[in-house]
Amino acid sequence: MRRTDVYVKVEVVVDENEPVERIAAEICRQIRKLHGVRQAEVSNMVERD
Known about the structure:
The chain is mainly α. It has one helix spanning 20-32.
């Protein structure tokens, strides 16, 4: 079986009091639950106004 890296951009709206790192970790956790996903990680975060 071959492996492929798939890069996905996700844009989220976050409350001021919500830690972005926690949301990113939860997104990774949910992705890892998918069949065949071996690893999910955050490689970059860009804050916008």
